[in-house]
Amino acid sequence: IKLTPDGELLFTLAMPLVEQMDKLPEEFAARRGDIDRGRVDVAAGWSTILYVLPRYVEEFRHAHPNIELKLHNVTGAEGLAQLRAGHVDFAVGPLLEVPEDIEFHPVVSYEPLLITALDHPLAQKESFTLSELSQFPFILPPRHLSTWSTVDSAFKKHGLDYEVAMEVGGWEVIKKYVELGLGISVVMSICITGDERLHVVSASEHFPDRTYGVVLRKGKFLSPQARSFVAMLLPAATAQAESEAPPGP
Fold it and tell me: What global pTM score does this model have?
């Protein structure tokens, strides 16, 4: 077989490109393996940042001290918007409903607890009904957060009215005002240290557990740095993200 003049010209032009392509896997592997530089952006709510992520952040920072880590303190809806827009690598938090373009990989679940002041009438009880709870004012996080939806759904399901005396942000603030006897609340077990001056009892009979997980956008290719952090949160999520990533670099 003999190349035509046009074929020889094309061969000459293409040869350097072919050589670069042959070296591409080695070059890509070398650069991909160096994950000690770069940045990871994570969207998460205040409670997730304060209670769920610290041990993972500590582990990641010790393993990769030169990688910049930015935690975006956002609501669940804001986190999804940032994820879809490509402003963050992934999100971490609870997700009550999973949209079609989103993957949710559970990491850890926490039990709901009823908290009251020590001298509250409910403090004498180790169990309760929703009807009994409806007789007392609640202190809840803002209504756009998942705790409000959880409490509201439980009462509406049983046709019960309830009163929200205060709407405040953050479980630490809620615990403080409950200690003062200004209302009762439902919080997740992760925020209870045992040092609080509160009566604490399980509320899992009436309210669901809260599951926190890794939130990924389907089809999004994670950087090596982001995959490393996800691996500390959930190795299975990393494997699935890899398998569903687009082919090629």
Answer: 0.74
